[in-house]
Design goal:
2 copies of one chain form a homodimer. The first copy, chain A, has 4 helices and 11 strands. The relative contact order of chain A is 0.11. In chain A, strands 5-6-11-7-8-9-10 form a 7-stranded antiparallel beta sheet, with no helix packed on it. A two-stranded antiparallel sheet of chain A has the order 1-2. In chain A, strands 3-4 form a two-stranded antiparallel sheet. The first copy, chain A, is of the alpha+beta class and 200 residues long. The first copy, chain A, folds into 2 domains: 68 residues, Winged helix-like DNA-binding domain superfamily/Winged helix DNA-binding domain (Arc Repressor Mutant, subunit A), CATH 1.10.10; 87 residues, Umud Fragment, subunit A, CATH 2.10.109. About 8% of the residues of chain A have low confidence. Chain A binds a DNA duplex (30 and 30 nucleotides) through helix 3.
Chain lengths: 200, 200
DNA sequence: TATACTTAAGAACAGATGTGCGTCGTCGTG
DNA sequence: CACGACGACGCACATCTGTTCTTAAGTATA
């Protein structure tokens, strides 16, 4: 991504990036000029425009230090947990391979996602138990068979299987002792994309 | 560290923190005022002074958005997903409270922990399904009833309930169609402390 | 009850800041 | 040579922004 930049633009970008990471907030136009001995603010503007045009940064108009880094996953750190392998079928690896890692947070970190704590056993047969945390993606259209968080017009929210039928929606619990709900005015607040359980 | 803050100060701090981490740059004094409906910039200054005095932030004088977060170990600590509330029992909160967050990675980040991918349905009645990820803590002594990853002397690893009995251990699957194993030479590689499932 | 702290309004000001206009020089390309 | 890019200067302007001062209500503390 940085290849299409000129050398000067690259250095400016790296300067901004380092400042944001190390100092916590970005530079002003004139601060950049000071660093690179560019006397005119407009000289810097030229670079910022180029960086924005090439998709490396985003800026808010007329706002101080409002430089947002795009496509920047932050300082590389070994986050997550080591992924050891598969169990119950094969042989354990003697040593845990440290190079394969899994980061649960980034696994679910999509814009808008949020977490709900599950209450009750209505989804028990879908392996979602009381006390589990469900990751919900509100930016996703529910399709038939999805597990969704649905909200009826009374304001009650509930987690069920989502089955649109004719002029209503069947909200089916994953619990054979419970009956499905048939509702007309209902919306899916989001689709359940993950489940996290903490034991101990 | 946040205990010595008033409720108002805490919320202001969290607002700043979230903005820096999600948007990439911090707010101006008046932006904070807008968020909390504080009409006067000085009302906000008051909070910023308090936060600086209590050591949560550092500011550069007379510089826009020059708020530096202190005692913040970087993006990893502020990652996580907003925790919205409980579902299936009550009413959804209209707005998701941004200040309550849950970070799955740090939730399980204990020294030595590792992750295994589950294969098979032997623990299905414990709501652990094929393809799930199990977080295993090897530094924890298994007690009767724990779900453990057990390794027999042949080198096979398997996930089962752990029931020590007399001169052997009963390894009980959570699947009524399967039979328990009775083994003598077995050790628990670790106790399952978490389960993570990714759907979609 | 008196004191201190927190929270906030309103007004005013100096300086910081982003932005636009015009101009200029250099370099590589056709 | 002309042309377009990149890089930069200088200037000017409108806001944005931090800051300070004064006042004041509410709350907790001693």
């Amino acid at each position: 991504m940085l290849e299409q930049l000129t050398e000067r633009q690259r250095k400016v970008y790296l300067f901004i990036r380092d400042l944001i990471h190390n100092r916590g907030y970005g530079p002003t136009v004139r601060e950049i000029g000071e660093e690179f001995e560019i006397a005119s603010p407009n000289g810097v503007m030229c670079h910022l425009r180029a960086l924005e045009r090439k998709g490396l940064i985003r800026r808010s108009k007329r706002e101080a230090r409002a430089i947002e880094l795009l496509g920047d996953t932050g300082p590389e750190s070994l986050e997550g947990l080591p992924l050891a392998g598969r169990v119950a079928a094969g042989v354990m690896h003697e040593a845990i391979e440290q190079d394969k890692r899994i980061d649960f947070t980034s696994l679910f970190q999509r814009p808008g996602c949020f977490v709900l704590e599950i209450s009750g056993d209505s989804m028990i047969e879908a392996q979602i138990a009381d006390g589990d945390f469900a990751v919900v993606d509100p930016n996703r259209k529910a399709v038939s068979g999805d597990i969704v968080v649905a909200q009826t017009d009374e304001g009650n929210a509930t987690m069920k299987y989502w089955f649109p039928e004719k002029d209503h929606v069947r909200l089916q619990p994953a619990n054979s002792t419970m009956e499905p709900m048939y509702v007309r005015d209902v919306q899916a607040l989001g689709v359940v994309v993950g489940v996290v359980r903490r034991m101990s």
